[in-house]
């Protein structure tokens, strides 16, 4: 039944202009057009097919990724794609590869930490991919605590070289993507030692492999660290292990923008302010929040379409059964995730703005907003990645048994996504940083420090400690300022209560350690407030398109009411709301679910994902799920023969009771 | 450094008799001894090695499973293992295989639904594995709603046969384990049609493959449904697809214990009470709860040992860094899961007793406890599997980056475990059944019906609606009867509030549908109460062993206080506790974490898992994590050559800017 749209009924129900929503989702008409064009280019090119990825053994999988990466680079050059287009192309190819680290970490890091000459030298090679680089920070024994890294870089004034060395087993570099099999170069983090003194961890550019035959250079031991979670997924990436046996590099391979070692081995700080480093960090974390909304929206798109196709129970007089999307339990699990996808999208958009703002300030030597920006990006990184990882798995469960098949796309999406909770800062470590920032903010309130940005609400602490929520009937929960105040009050009261309990400890560090689990909850409350407030701010903008703003309002309401219900304990314990108000919020939530229901499929259509990018039979655009599942099954290698390999040796002797003599 | 125990310090800290705890965990000295002996037998036999499972392509993986299954069966016969020992052996082999369905579903189902003659005929073949059977219920289009299955079994009086047929694509059987490549027979569920009338879904024994050459019989189309979540994991199982094209089976292949079709095509109910079916269901769900505690304890064992090995931050004067298990955030995520493992273990033990009790009553024609037993097993199935799935992933995250490696064992454990949330009753569908039972119970309270078992507390409704929690200081939360009352009050009040709101609807079915998401929360409250009360009851028994009971008390406290904190919103909204009491509970929780901390490693040692069964480098008994991780990395197929396959075709031309002519 090719050509039939099984979801046409659903699409006809939509009460808003889907094309206009597509622009809102993409961020601008321009962004939409680029995305649309590039995603179709990728989808229509058989060289980028990925249907068999989850069935491939590791070596074949990896070789195939090498092919795609080379092919993509060829395309980028042939079509003379802009930087924006090229990065979209890599995005829609949708396969982790060494190029991610080359473009996403190696290049930005040299930009951020290299001197002008260093940038000129290395970036011109890197931009043409005449060298391939990775980012080698983490070690077998050290991750979160970067200051604990053990690799050493000892300056030898005799030869004007650094000697890079791995003194222990635990100092082996471990995890860097692209390192295992591909990278020719790495930014290596090591403790700088010169003149018999140690100066902490610094970055060095180290060549790892010959540019002629790709053999590791003398003293370099390098390999892949082995299989990771899931089929396909991150196994296309060669996360690597690396050991140095007294490897020598020229002195000027140390990245010297912020500090230098002179010819005679003196360590010197440069006059470039170190705070500039944070710019890169805000940039990287901003992209992580964007990625969260992409991954989440993909999962939600699959689960929503399939929930409209899937029917179970409720048949009356032999008619069709109920679409599972009509069950309130299904809605109460799915629609908050749909709303979260939009919420994270707008939070990401705002972070992009924040990055520009921070960069401009840094250039003007204004560091005043840095601590707030830093806390805020760390917190949103943690919040959005944790929520997205959980949401993907929930979407998989929402698809019942069929969600467990690789052809549903959800297992691979989960497996490839979850490390975002760990890399670029373990999510709990991130929240502890936010908590520290909050405690510091509270403790300084007395000094009348001016608070800006996402922490400005603390300036109204007196009011927030006392205010009473005015909600009297369910619809009152539609009032954005009432909602904001409740979220602000909760966050403020949790922080203050944490600070008060901290003050009972004579040693504040001990107190922080003892109360850390509670303080992390205050940090979460603060971060949720940020996402809610950015969603509400978005709705205060002019948003064109028939019915578009109404839908976004409903989604915004679902997002904050869902949080309010999920964290009811916080809101009640801090007396921000009453049990009655909590119950009214829940009533409104159900109404909003009903409002979103007829628009659900159109709301995921607005993501404008191709079937190629989605990579899911359950989520396919036309909803022709069953025929496609059935056809796909027969492609499994196990179906190459009707009688399986192993029948003669293991099944037949068992059935015939002849195992006694069998060689097993 | 073979032979060094890196966790010796931790083991020395333990304040209780670990050997005595092992007996408590196993359930009895006998159970411990069998487990201990069989797990070592498996661990020491290289034929059962599983280190390379996650690296194997599907066909190789599957063939290897066939080998292990045959080998295991040979061992079972050679060593003349008892049924208990044989099933332990399959458990410790730790690899999903067709034998699970043969022994776990096919055999029990024939036992439950076959007549005496049918049992004699089929079981004697099945017990010797001269036939291999599976359980074919689910279809491509129908899972949860068994009554919606489409496969037909039409009686043909001319030949005294049933004609089994798949009338539509969606009627294809889909999912049955062991079906795809191995089973020779299946119990097939189909709509029985005779005399032009339909009599609903019944079970039939259908031969699928020739016993001579394993070819599918005429009219049978059968194959594997393809890759599932994860590497290794459930891909060792041949979940299958099956279609019938008018396949004929003798009339007596219908399982006729409860109903029959006579020679002349008349449908007749037998006088065996249908309720007996529920016995099997209680049995199967009871094993699922046991499995939950096994999977959870495994994950917790890995995360606990690794958290004691892993150090991060906090080094003072060049000394070692802090073990991450000493961070309160780590404890507050890990120790509740450790406590849950014990809680589920005892809940499982109690369910075993419940099964015996129900069986005895059924034999005496006493069906009075069935609804309660049914709701309770459905609820505990849902509660324990959902919590376990989430917990495994949390344990993976607790291991930071290294948890993402397959050698950590956690990715595969997660992937192989999660379908337990879906099979044997989707967890939400299960909770909806519990909710229905609760609403019915409340509505019948007025009629003074005697309430027994896990619902007995509802008999004290008047008191529970009014009681006030007496806790005044943190330690008051150690009082079991205060705790029980609070959990009972919360569950009762949530049910009553649901029932009250239901009564506002004129159509109760519509009301139930509309409020279902809230009612599911009441069901969860009821199920948590059951687990808490069974843990508390366990502690009222005599438990030998120095310090053992003290540890269990601490774990029990952690379990209920953790629930109390997590669901604070419920407790506060129903006014079961005050914010002050909630905060005191949290204080006690932290104290209990400190109490458990020195015993943590010993508490997971008490599970008595071999390194083979655990299958995790991070969780290995001796804690020698880093050397083992490093060595294991080099075994990845990608490390067979230093320069990767694909270098000449894809990397070199890219570096040399020669992609123009390259064939990609
Ligand atoms: C897929 C993937 C790709 C990666 N790519 C790269 C790469 O390209 N380059 C690179 O250099 N690295 C890379 N990494 C490594 C990554 O950056 C680290 O894994 C990450 O920083 C987490 O550190 P860890 O593994 O040491 O975790 P750990 O810090 O050891 O975490 C273990 C546990 O300890 C807890 N913990 C740690 N410190 C504290 C504290 N102070 N207080 C409370 N709790 C604490 C954590 O919350 C966690 O529960 C990658 C990792 C993965 C999984
Ligand atoms: C690994 C694995 C092994 C299996 N082995 C076997 C086997 O050996 N033999 C066999 O016969 N089957 C087997 N199954 C199938 C399994 O029993 C079904 O997948 C399971 O019963 C769930 O049904 P479903 O897939 O139809 O989910 P669905 O019912 O389609 O679930 C989809 C969504 O709808 C929701 N939903 C459904 N009904 C309702 C309702 N009334 N109210 C509210 N929400 C609802 C669910 O909560 C879920 O979110 C297996 C499945 C798996 C994953």
Question: How does this model look, in words?
Answer:
Two copies of one chain form a homodimer. By secondary structure, chain A is an alpha+beta fold. The longest helix of chain A is centred in the middle third of the chain and has 36 residues, at 328-363. The model of chain A has no long low-confidence stretch (mean pLDDT 96). The first copy, chain A, starts with 7 loop residues before the first helix and ends in a 9-residue tail after the last helix. In chain A, strands 1, 2, 3, 5, 6 and 9 form a six-stranded mixed β-sheet that branches. Helix content of chain A is 52%, strand content 9%. At the A-B interface, helix 4, strand 7, helix 9, helix 10 and helix 11 of A face helix 4, strand 7, helix 9, helix 10 and helix 11 of B. One flavin-adenine dinucleotide sits between chains B (101, 135-138, 143-144, 175-177, 234, 239, 419, 422-423, 426, 428-429, 432) and A (310, 312-313, 324, 327, 329-330, 398, 400-402, 404).
- How can the largest sheet of chain A be summarized? 6 strands, mixed
Termini separation of chain A comes to 48 Å
Bound molecules: flavin-adenine dinucleotide
Radius of gyration of chain A: 27 Å
Average pLDDT of chain A = 96
What helical percentage do the residues of chain A reach?
A: 40-55%
- Biggest interchain interface, per-side counts: A-B, 144 and 145 residues
Given as residue ranges, the uncertain stretches of chain A (5+ residues, pLDDT < 50) are none
By secondary-structure content and strand pairing, the structural class of chain A works out as: alpha+beta
Count of helical stretches of chain A: 22
Strand content of chain A: 5-15%
Multimerization status: homodimer
The overall strand count of chain A is 11
Give the overall shape of chain A.
globular
